[in-house]
Write a structure and sequence with these properties.
By secondary structure, the protein is α/β, with parallel strands linked by helices. It has helices at 3-13, 26-42, 46-59, 190-193, 217-230, 265-279, 313-324, 332-338, 390-402, 424-428, 453-468, and strands at 63-64, 78-83, 87-92, 101-107, 112-123, 126-134, 147-154, 160-165, 200-204, 240-246, 251-253, 259-262, 290-296, 341-344, 348-349, 371-374, 378-379, 407-410, 419-420, 433-438, 440-441, 449-452. It has two domains: 7-110 and 263-468, Zn peptidases (Aminopeptidase); 112-246, Aminopeptidase i, Domain 2 (Roll), CATH 2.30.250. It is an enzyme of class 3 (hydrolase).
């Protein structure tokens, strides 16, 4: 075969992916990224993420589901629901709700350090906050970095108080100190060397009164300052959701400013992309199919609890929509879910050339190549995954190709190397056709993760064309 004929055959038969930077409008990418950085910087907990996303929704004409209980719902209605201020669902009603929903699901929680129910102790005249890590973290990454004290407290009288110390430049921060290298002779597996019981944050050293005969004078100083600022007492910790999160502002990374470094990309990047995609749908005033975004809590610890994907609130919400639309059939929701399609939006492991052996290089997501599609997740023998069908993979592929959205195929690491899961399997169990699709990330679960602005933008575009629906 002649070289030119082989070249034509290669162009016809082989799959060639190229960097999105050669075809995207850089100004659009950077403009979208700028707004995302504003969001991720002020959404350091799932509660704050819900608050900020609700503000976005209401500015775009979305109303709480309670507003429709007397009038019912109709095509084009924009509706949202929050659950315990930690989870959020938003939807735009289509022509016939019973014909199924096009959904994107993501999660709002991120790895962090939660305060224990009785967190404040004094040891050797140092006030310390005891923590319990949440999600899969490398504990050493949380040492000697500035941490912010953020959360919500319910006082004894039922009053809700939001607390935030460390996010403003003038605020003090908290630090978990590590042992100096000159004295550190610990050896062995880092997972055993760095233990959760040692994640205690330095919180104060000034005693409130002089004298050795007064018990815990530094702890009392901390409590007094907390009382002066928020009116809280020590028992209020018992009814509080307080986290220590990285006190690090989002930053552009690289001399070309092509990346974003921030805490919580996993998975607030997919949450933000999905919500803005829903609000920006070209068919939002007159959609053919119902479009919905579901943003959960608790994914990092198995989706347990009432605000997780295993919970019932999202099912109840859809049932309520069916009732408000006039559907009364006993099994309507089961039939509806069987007709529904979903992109499970969760971040993918980006290819870091420093750690080549962790990946199958033919099946790995690369920065700047678009949204990453995972046919399956799981671990060792595909355990714990739902795995998308060839038919649905074909639909997603045709849709993204037709709309000019850049995408890439990936899996979660080399076989037998490790693994993980998403919320996809919980929806598959209910009959929803689903595949994982999200933004590639470096340093996943660390206090300062990295992503490509181009991939962020293509994730938004992919969710948008999927929610807009259409047969391809």
């Amino acid at each position: 075969m002649k070289r030119e004929d082989a070249k034509k055959l290669s162009d016809k038969l082989t799959m060639r992916k190229r960097s999105t930077w050669f075809s995207l409008d850089k100004e659009e990418v950077f403009a979208y990224s700028k707004e995302y950085m504003k969001f991720i910087g002020k959404s350091v907990t799932e509660r704050l993420a819900v608050k900020n996303l609700v503000d976005l929704l209401e500015s775009r004409g979305f109303k709480p589901v309670s507003s429709f209980e007397k009038t019912g719902v109709k095509r084009g209605d924009r509706i949202y629901l929050t659950k315990d201020n930690k989870a959020l669902i938003a939807t735009v009603i289509g022509e016939d709700l019973k014909e199924g929903i096009d959904m994107v699901a993501a999660h709002l929680d991120a790895p962090r350090l939660d305060l224990k129910p009785s967190p404040l102790v004094e040891d050797s005249e140092i006030a310390m906050l005891k923590t319990h890590y949440y999600g899969g973290v490398k504990k050493y990454q949380w040492l000697n970095i500035p941490l912010a004290f953020v959360g919500t407290v319910i006082k004894s009288n039922g009053e809700s108080v939001d607390v935030s110390i460390g996010l403003k430049s003038e605020d003090p921060v908290f630090v978990i100190s590590d042992l100096l290298p000159h004295l550190d002779n610990r050896e062995g597996d880092f997972r055993k060397v760095f233990q959760g019981k040692d994640l205690n944050a330095m919180s104060g050293t000034i005693p409130i009164v002089e004298g050795k005969d007064f018990e815990n004078p530094v702890k009392l100083m901390f409590l007094n300052l907390l009382y002066e600022k928020y009116g809280l007492v020590e028992e209020d910790f018992f009814s509080a959701d307080i986290q220590l999160v990285p006190a690090l502002e989002p930053r552009e990374v690289g001399l070309d400013r092509s990346m974003i470094g921030a805490y919580g990309h996993d998975d607030r990047v997919c949450s933000y992309s999905a919500l803005t995609a829903l609000a920006d749908m070209s068919s939002i005033d007159n959609p053919k199919r119902t479009a919905m975004v579901l943003l959960f809590d608790r994914e990092e610890i198995g989706s347990e609890g009432v605000t997780g994907a295993k919970g019932q609130f999202w099912v109840t919400f859809i049932e309520k929509l069916l009732n408000l639309s006039g559907a009364k059939g006993l099994y309507e929701i089961d039939f509806l879910l069987e007709k529904s399609r979903m992109l499970s939006g969760d971040v993918a492991a980006g290819f870091d050339p420093t750690f080549k052996d962790a990946h199958d290089q033919a099946n790995v997501a690369r920065f700047g190549y678009g949204i990453a599609i995972l046919k399956y997740t799981g671990s060792r023998g595909k355990s714990g995954t739902s795995e998308a069908s060839a038919e649905f993979m074909g639909y997603v592929r045709r849709l993204l190709n037709q709309k000019g959205v850049h995408w890439q195929s990936t899996i979660l690491g080399e076989v037998d190397r490790g693994g993980g899961g998403t919320v996809a399997k919980f929806f598959a169990e209910r009959g929803v056709t689903v595949v994982d699709a999200g933004t590639p990330v470096f340093g996943m679960h660390s206090p300062f993760e990295l992503l490509s602005k181009a991939d962020l933008y293509e994730t938004y575009r992919a969710y948008k064309v999927f929610l807009e629906g259409g047969d391809v």
